[in-house]
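Tutorial sheet, problem 5. The two components below are modelled jointly, 438 residues in total.
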Amino acid sequence: MRTEIISEKEGIALSTLFIMGPAIILPTGADALKDFWIAIILSVVLGALVSLMYIKILSAFPGKDLFDISEILFGRFAGKAVSLLYVWFAFHLASLIFADYTYFIKTVNFPEVNELTIIIFPAILCIWALKIGIEGLGRFSTLIFVPLCSFVLIAIFLLIPKMDFEHLLPVFENGFQPIFRGTFSVLTFPFAETVVFMGVFNCFRENKSISKVYLFSIILGGFFILLTKSSEVLVLGIDKFTQFYFPAYASVSRVEIGNFIQRIEIIVGLLFTLSGLVKVCICMLAACKGISKILGFDDYRFLVTPMVLLNVAFVFISYSNIIQLRFWTSYISMYYKFPFQVILPLIILAFALLKKKSNSLKQTAK
Amino acid sequence: MSKILYSILIFALILYIDGIEVLISKDKKKIAAYCSIFFTVVILSMLLIMDIKIPNILEPVENFIVSSFGTH
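Model answer (structure tokens):
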């Protein structure tokens, strides 16, 4: 397989945009109600801990990705089965983002337009980006990262006159259970979704870059999610925040300064469109790489077009409307994602440590 | 019917633009992998166009999680 190298800066931009992605526009942390901010902070801490596990696994096998590692640890057949599970996870995650794309645009912009017409454009862009590879994606992310983050900060700044800090009080109103539920929900979406990067993060010149990229992007992504969700709740109040499908869009649409600066909700659309594209590309990249490794090919690019088209078809089979999608993301996805994000990596880490120990024992015996 | 013909034309175009590279590589394994995914897409798309219900493979997962953990 052709070696692709990206810099630390590109890696951080890629993974921060991956984390921000749809989490910016959806009511992330809504399970914790008014204590959503505590849930987000706790989930950043837990996300960093979980990412330490991913870093440990990747660092134990320099230059290898998750699919190579699972074959080294579990053997040919069991390794391929584990790889297949992660291919499915990445593929399904990409379909969720495609569905978010479709229903976001359909709900807020084009209610009359057919879903396929909406989805086909990001799908074509995704195919194009994947044919270029992770190097192109990395450069694209670096290019859009600073403008997008600036847009978020400007939008929040413009929302300050509409904010009411009473919306955050009282703290701990509903006890600890909603906070735990919210933390669990935010951990599984979006922080621990970075498990997908284990399939593509064999592209750094130095092995230590992985830890920098993982930790820095979780902190940076967490900061932006906390900032945006706080501004949304402060503007809308918790009831509207949990009721809206896309609270970010609703809150930013309230910006009105002197009848001049208004209707800037396009910023939210732009932010989601670009960061969502990065996320969907990373997921599909991991899925295509995984499939090509399972089938024993040295390049994934020839599989990109049919795989992305398959994903588009899968979106229509799985989520026929926004209510079904919301039900899945709010109630099902956290339990479904947890084994892929924490339990399986824990098993992989245990096997990696055992293998390392047995190797060092063999070396001392020699 | 025109919808189906239209879709077949689009798929043929995709196969021509993208798949031709795979076909001329003469790597049988590569062609088999490409075609198997591609024709799955074609079949699924045709079923969707013809409004034939395709079982949702996420439904059993959904039912299992709802019965195990509930929904709030």
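Marking note: Strands of chain A lie at 256-257, 261-262. Full credit if you identified this.
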